[in-house]
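Notes, p. 3: input format for complexes.
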Amino acid sequence: MTPASERRWLRPPSDDRPASFAYGADYNPEQWPREVWKEDVRLMREAGVTVVSVAIFSWARLQPAEDRWDFAWLDEVLDLLHDSGIAVDLATATASPPPWLTTLHPEILPVTRTGETLSQGARQHWRPTSPVFRAYALRLVEAMATRYADHPALVAWHISNELGCHNIYDYSDDAAQAFRDWLRTRYGTLDELNRAWATSFWSQYYGQWEQIQPPRLAASHANPTQQLDFKRFSSDALKDYLRAERDVLRRITPDVPVTTNFMVMGETKGMNYPDWADEIDFVSNDHYAHPGPQRLDELSFSAALTHSIAHGRPWFLMEHSTSAVNWQTVNVAKTEGELARDSLVHVAHGADAVCFFQWRQSAAGAEKYHSAMVPHAGPDSEVFRAVTALGRTLRELTPVTGSVREPARAALVYDWDSWWAVERDSQPTSLLRYRQEALDWYSAFLALGVRVDVVTTAADLTGYDFVAAPVLHVVPKDLADRLDAYVRGGGHLATTYYSGVVDENDHVHLGGYPGALRDLLGIRIEEFGPLLEDADVRLDNGLTGTLWTDRIEVTDPEVTVLARYETGDQAGRPALTRRVPADGGSASYLSTRLGSQGLTGVLETLLSGAGVASELPAGARGRVEATVRTDGTHAYWFLVNRTDEPVEFDAVDGEALTGPAPAGGGLVLPPREVAVLRVEAGATPFLPGV
Ligand code: GLA
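Output follows (690 residues plus alpha-D-galactopyranose):
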């Protein structure tokens, strides 16, 4: 169990109710007249709301001019919430600088790669490295912290909002200066930098630090290591800003935990969150589902990754949507059951808080068609009824709070450096999508009903029986050594095309691919064989590959060829290999893209070689996601029906905390529903022999 003191947000300090799930939303009362606030808190109580995030975009209201402050309205809101037993996750309000500031100091506005300056008028129009912006923002943070330090509603600080959502890459002169400073720290000398950036290529040698620029629009492909370093720097620059706000808060309110909302989901690769997580007191995440066949898989994948970013401790789901969003191409409403199921998948993966964007749907502004807990239709609506029902469900799940997700026997490695490197220009193909490949592997695990942790390269892999590391492109020497030791220690590793190819400076490991992993895999590749967009190849196991092939030569007698190409330029050559060293586990290599369906069969073979099997009864595999949380005394099995059909279990035991209960030895899980069964720690709810 994680001590409740670390999760003060589970229980408002002035409230003597037992710790329970935090439940709530972003609350933007400044968009509404006072009369609505009273109705808001009444409805919040009805829905079971325990916490709201306030003042996220309130800078202009709190400081309407450089020398004018207005906290009275926020005092009133916080008092009202507190009087109703609702806690406040208070924003530092720095996310969107007001027009007076950008008018006074246009030099805080970010500059794009092509040299255009972004304007005010939306939000997050500030340079992460601007000393001027920082001075104004920290003044506001100081004012907020000082004013509300002792407010009884305050349970957490919410720094800015989704740092980097719109301003992660800034190419301004401030950024150029900060980039040089960052490079000085990384490399120490220009000689080192010139070596790492391979500046003898295309006459790029730097004789003075001042000559270095961010990778602004250039005549052709910018230096690849410069690009990779600029990504690292941009993530670090925002992390540094995060620290600056945090330090003010810690100085003034050392006992109030600090968070900032991450965006662990597909479109936000700029922020290296695993590297940010230790800067805050608890991890929170925002997640928005994307319609499509992998909608639920992606949600689960993001939640699993958030769990590992949070080092396995309970985390806070800061935002998701009750129904449609406003920013996708077509904004699809959620169907019946999805609001609760989406929330509970996050809970299954370790969230102890479920919050939405936002409490009341805006009547005007860019997000007026974004769903909320109270929709335009008002509380007499399906959405509000579902919101209230979820509040009840979370109360039923109170015993789960503080428990941690039970580690899986299999892990899937997710690596920011590789993500950044393979999707840059000047690659063998521009069609490779790193996250999609990882997600396809995750989908294959789900299809087989095998629990899997999503971990970064920093994780200790030794406890896992099986590790999949698709497109692990950037492999520094120490990582290669650790993977080698993992296999020598009995672990089973699977990797794919375009892995092991470069070091941390994006320099190729010479002597043939897959470079740093060549000996471990027992193969050698002289040339990549990427495929044109509409091309595919057949394998002799009946599967079809796209995107990539390799010209593989087996170099080690311990390697078995599990599948060969039947068509294409590599016909007759290996497509899937596995090296089984005399002492150790195994190291497998898949040289093409199979997609989630094709991967499922291959993964089944590889997992069985590692002795990893599904814990679910055969009929439920793929249709139900099983996730386990434990507090050391009990295990809480989350069984999520991923389908639109009922799923029947024949032999199940356990106490239902929420959802359908076992009856007559069996359990029927209705479409899109979730059952949470409590059993003894270490036990399973599935009876033997089934
Ligand atoms: C993000 C932001 C919110 C809101 C939602 C809409 O998560 O943090 O302010 O814009 O997106 O989906």
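The mean pLDDT is 96.
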